[in-house]
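Entry 12.
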Amino acid sequence: MPSRRILLLAGLAAAVLATGCASRGDIARLREEVRRVDFVRVITSAKRKVFPVIVYLKPIQETFAGGEKAEVEVIGSGVIISPDGYVVTNYHVAQNATKIRAVLADEKQTSASVVGYDQDTDIALLKLDFDGADVTLPYAEFGDSSRLEEGDFVMTMGCPLGLTRSVSFGVVSNTKRYLGARLSRYNLWIQTDAAINPGNSGGPLVNSDGEIVGINTLGVRFGQSIGFANPSDVVKTVVDELRAHGRVRRAWTGITFQALKDFDSNTIVDADEGVLAADVEPGSPAETAGLKANDLILAVAGEPAGAVFVEDLPALRTRFAALEPDRKVDLLVRRDGRELTLPLTPLLRGKVEGEDFDCKEWQMTIKEINRFADRQMYYFVKRGVYIQGVESKGNARSSLLVPNDIILEIDGRKIESLDDARAAYEELDGKPAGQRRAFVKVLRDGIQRMIALDYNRRDSEYEKDR
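Predicted 3D structure (tokens):
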């Protein structure tokens, strides 16, 4: 319903026009005032719907990046999406959280637990804890991000820099921004000039109807008015999977796709349909099926499959990830001018990230190599661990071990898993003073090296030096 001020302005405009004495400038100013007041009404209406359901999040994250196991407090935002307290935020806000405190709009504090998260889309689902009390909360609803157009008005809401809730507004700059496979394997991004600052992560991107059309995820430090949100259509699908299974189940084929026309890399494939198999991972279902690099994939399970431009790749990857694991499908490919049908049997994708371990007396942390998260490591070693971090003053640093060294052996013991490394560390840690020395064979930049690790100085001595 129009506001009283708008009705008054409209009446005034009609009166001025009726007198016949209004100039064109007067009429233009009146019309502009009506538009301005209507714009304010839209902002106010949308804000009232979503602002009360913004959650300020303070997770305590467990980290191993500094060479030791540590806990750090981070800040982020979230948005309540159900009356029983489900909250959507980013994976990078909730990852490795040992504890999450949540502050609601009425300044009440409570804890939140992680229901599940999806690293590939940077989405996490939390549940607010009210100690068994039956509560009904206000919540926001998802809108249809596929209906967004460049130039549409949007607002970002959240708690930037840990401050109290705020709202910024702008427009949609691009509805289908592709940022590469490392950032967006399964989604494109909504680019907006509405401010997204540290702490806004996990907050909602809101349209003029007060609906969630995206989850704010990325800001660009070196550029002004450039931010990115995960589209609500992707977020809704991920949230449904997390509520049902605690994780997003995806099939794995081992295919690296390449668009037919990639202008950024100046790669143009002489074809009008399909998608190029740029690489086929050894030991993968695709290799077993007989797929080879540079094959042109035309169809899967009887349906055309293609990616002419890079913007088409996330949808294609999503489609292959949605294949039923352990169920054979036909893959139609073109090779050397001939069409072949290959029997592809996808597998259920495993863990997306390896586990960590703190080698406390060596002042370094190690991480399990994972084929999905550590592709460069996996290229050299299929099963094993690498050094994730080393302390600036510590035995590992003094012995010239560095991050990203792949550990092949510890004192002659072959290391093929995190359990192997843990067992070797615990055995060596029991050596008496003066004998605390081990030889570590590592792979660094593709070259094997033998490092003498001297750990006779105990961790307590380093604590005194700090």
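Annotation: The CA atoms of residues 57 and 102 lie 5 Å apart. The longest strand covers residues 166-177.
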